[in-house]
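the two lines:
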Amino acid sequence: MKKKLTWKDICILQGIVMIFSLTSVTAKFASGQAAFTRGFFLFYGLEVVILGVYALLWQQAIKRIDISIAYANKAMVLLWGLLWSVMIFHDSVTPKKIAGVLFVIAGVCVLNRDGRSGEGPQASGTDADQWKTERKEGGKS
Amino acid sequence: MSNLQICILIMICSELIASSSQILLKKSAGIRYDSWLREYLNKWVIAGYLMLFVSMLLTIRAYAYADSYMNVPVLETMGYIFVMLLGRIFFGEKITRNKIAGMILILTGILIFYL
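prediction for all of em together
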C-alpha cells in the first residue's frame, strides 16, 4: 500500500514549504514598519494572504501524503529561510548554517523514500489520475 | 522554576497542540466532501487552525522566557517527533527505518544550524 513519494509529490510539497517560508520575509519587513502605517498593513496583509494560500495547498497535499512525512518536509524552511536571508537581507552565511541545511536536506531525502498515503479520498488510480481528479474537484486551489 | 524550564514547558504544550492540529487536518483530508469549500469549512479544519493559532500565541509567549533566541526554534523540533508518533497512533503510519534515519538527520541539522 505504501509507495515512494513521486518527484511530483516532492516538488509540490517543497513548493508549499517555500511559500510558507515567505511568511518569515513578510514578517521581517512588517517588523521594520511603524505600527499602523501603510507599510505595516501591507506586509502583515501579505503575510496573512501567504498563510492562507499555504493552508489551502497544504490541505490538498496531505490528502495523499503521510502526515509524518509531509510535516517533516517543513524542516526545509531552514534552506528557504537561509536563501531569503542571503538574497533579500544580505545576511552572512556561516559554515555551521550550511552544514545544518545539508543535514536537513539529507534527512528529508531519506524520509521521502517512504510515505505516500494509501488512504485518502483518491486512494485508487495512478498518480497522474489522482492529481487530475483533484484539480477537477478542487477547482483552482 | 527557572525561566528556561518555563520556556520548555510552554513549548511542549505549544508543540503538542500544533501536532494535534495536523492530525485534525489530516483527518479532514481523508474525508470526501461534496464541494471544495467544504474541504476547508468543516469542523476538523476549523478546529485545526484554531489550535494552530493557540500554539502560535504560546510560542510567542515562550520567547519571553527563552535564554536566547535559538531556544525556541530548537524546541520546536519536538513537533516533528510528536507528529510522527500521532501519525502512527491515529492513522497507522508505520515508523519505518527510513523515517527514523531521516528524522535523526533533520534534528541533527536543525541543532547544528542553531547551536
